[in-house]
Amino acid sequence: MDEATGTGLPNRPGAQRMRWKYLDNILTRHGPFTDPDWEPGEAAIEGLARAKLLGAGGLGCEILKNLALSGFQDIHVIDMDTIDVSNLNRQFLFRQADVGKYKAEVAAKFVEKRVKGVKITPYCGKIQDKDEEYYKQFAIIVCGLDSIEARRWINATLVGMVDDQDPDSMKPLIDGGTEGFKGQARVIFPTMTSCIECQLDMHAPRAAVPLCTLATIPRQPQHCIEWAHIIAWEEERKDITLDNDDPEHITWLYQKALTRAQEFNIPGVTYSMTQGVVKNIIPAIASTNAIVAASCCNEAFKLATSTNPFLGFPGTDNYMMYTGDESIYTYTFQHMKKSDCPVCGDDNIARPLQVDSDFTLQEFLDSLAERPEAQLKKPSIRSQEKSLYYQFPPDLREQTRPNLSKKLYELVQNGEEVVITDPAFPLTFKYKLVFK
Amino acid sequence: MLKIWSMKQKQQQDEAAATGGAKKKKVTAAQLRVQKDLSELSLGSTMKTNFPNPDDILNFTLTIEPDEGMYKGGRFIFDFKINQNFPHDPPKVKCTQKIYHPNIDLEGNVCLNILREDWKPVLNLNAVIVGLQFLFLEPNASDPLNKDAAEDLKANREGFKRNVRLSLGGGNVGKQTFDRVLK
Questions:
Q1: Which CATH superfamily is domain A211-279 in?
Q2: Which residues form the signal peptide (chain A) (predicted)?
Q3: Most exposed among A85, A380, B131, B161, judged by the fewest C-beta atoms under 10 Å?
Q4: pLDDT in tens, A198-223
Q5: Where are the beta strands (DSSP E) in A58-172?
């Protein structure tokens, strides 16, 4: 790219734009895979600059670095953790002096300093602290979270945000994750393509050892630690809530495990193994993180700029798995949307339903029985906060029966979501009750 | 990106409706699944549930009153704690009483394979309560959590039965005193 293109761009002195020389080659030319409708040039570059991105979680360092170096200019980052000395081997934005500080803050400062022109806004806390209003501001969400719970939360939030009337309400979700030598990158268009809840079976559950093995015949040092963790703690320190980050607690478990291991002649219990077992730490491998984060960020780039077809386009492959456990293997496939997915299944997107707020709950349920798509016989219904009426089990029915004679406005707010199930149907019905 | 949106609009042409300004509180996936599971429980005449807070369906107790087997006549209360990660995580189930049983320790921990190593999200709460019920019909000496009880069962089935009767009434077996759980 010659200097002229660089200087022609608003607010960017030529010398600075030179940094993106090679990136601009992609953004300003048609390629063999570009969509014929796509306009290369300034619009594409501006699109990238304006795309507000959110990155979060454990793959954060890699993702943040890649996004910034791909030309994204407005990036927000969320992470609740502080820097631990054990992070320094792979989380390269942090230095010894940063130990104890918030990851999001330190990472944001570091990358802003290194990559001129990028604005990074950190938030030190949980993704769950933020609401739909907050997530609405972004173009793309990139997640490298370390728990299934957090993934399910962001997934359900983004699916719930989709408003049929507003194209801007659908935020593509790019999710990366690693475990040792294995990892995955996937792209989700909430409500359109298979979501994280649809793909829940792709996560192997944590391998567990039978409780009786722990209690009676431990064979491995890990068994002794699990015993201390699950059984001994409950027996001896029931009143203290175990804090995985409290060194005194870990030391206690370590001592217990060590004594037990000696009884059974099992060598190998160490403090760091205790920490690992209790916190369920699977060793993070720097290069696996790099591979998966790179893949996620490439997809974010293609999504934002339309230069190339991206992973997850509806009807095409949306899931890339990578495994380096035994030599190397990757496979990219289309994970299908589940029609009975409790989050994005066709029947599980809350449909707006006009109701008379003066109706009693009983009258409302009766009216449902007449609706052609419902025809419910024994409906049970709840909102997020309240069990409104349950047909079963008996004691729950007795406790919720008084609600039947209450008016809807006493039980739910205008626009609140309710879920109705009926043993006669495998489906669930979700409605947003809109008062007439 | 815009292309994808127009695809979506073709995909579904739903009726429009403006919702109220109320902040949307969504029923969580765990709540939803528990609601489904509850409607499919077969409690029979030997089991009943108790929800201390009916709005919270993730925490409840289950009472089992076996009508046959050596634990007949007892009333056993289990505490169910289900977290938001259900059904990826199994429910946490504990016996709230101190009882004499080879597969339940003195703290109430239960050794039931589907509560731990064999749990799968396709299993439901009914599978768990069937499993618990089975423990009272067929205590299993080969997977002991209470080693003394398991050895008693292995060594002398009749003696074990007598111990069970003693323990149900709140008596001592060995050095341990058990909770009275007769109904």
A1: Ubiquitin activating enzymes (Uba3). Chain: B, domain 2 (1.10.10.520)
A2: none
A3: A85
A4: 898 787 777 788 888 888 889 999 99
A5: 74-79, 119-124, 140-144
Q: CATH fold of A51-201+284-333, please?
A: Rossmann fold (3.40.50)
Chain B residues in contact with A212 by the CB 8 A cut-off are 103, 111, 143-145
Distance CA B47, CA B182 (A): 15
A381: amino acid identity, one letter: I
- Chain A hits for B7, CB-CB cut-off 8 Å, are 192, 314
Residue A177: phi and psi, rounded to 5, are -155, 150
* Backbone φ and ψ of A228, nearest 5°: -60, -40
Q: Where are the domains of chain A?
A: 51-201+284-333, 211-279, 351-435
Domain B26-177: CATH superfamily, name plus number? Ubiquitin Conjugating Enzyme (3.10.110.10)
Residue B145: which of A209, A212, A350 has the nearest Cβ?
A: A212
The pLDDT tens digits of the residues spanning A214-256 come to: 888 899 999 999 999 988 998 898 888 888 888 999 999 999 9
Q: What residues of chain B, 31 to 50, have a C-beta less than 8 Å from chain A?
A: 31-33, 35-36, 38-41, 43, 48-50
Q: Across the interface, do B22 and A170 touch by the CB < 8 Å criterion?
A: no
Q: Is the ipTM of this complex over 0.85?
A: no
The one-letter amino acid at A410 = E
Q: Mutate one of A212, A316, A380 to test the B interface: name it (highest B CB count within 10 A).
A: A212
- B36, amino acid identity: K
pTM of the model: 0.71
Residue with tokens 């791909």: A70
**Residue spans per domain, chain B:** 26-177
Between vectors from CA A112 to CA A107 and to CA A118, what angle results, nearest 5°? Answer: 125
The CA distance from A342 to A286, in Å, is 35
Is A341 part of the annotated catalytic residue set? no
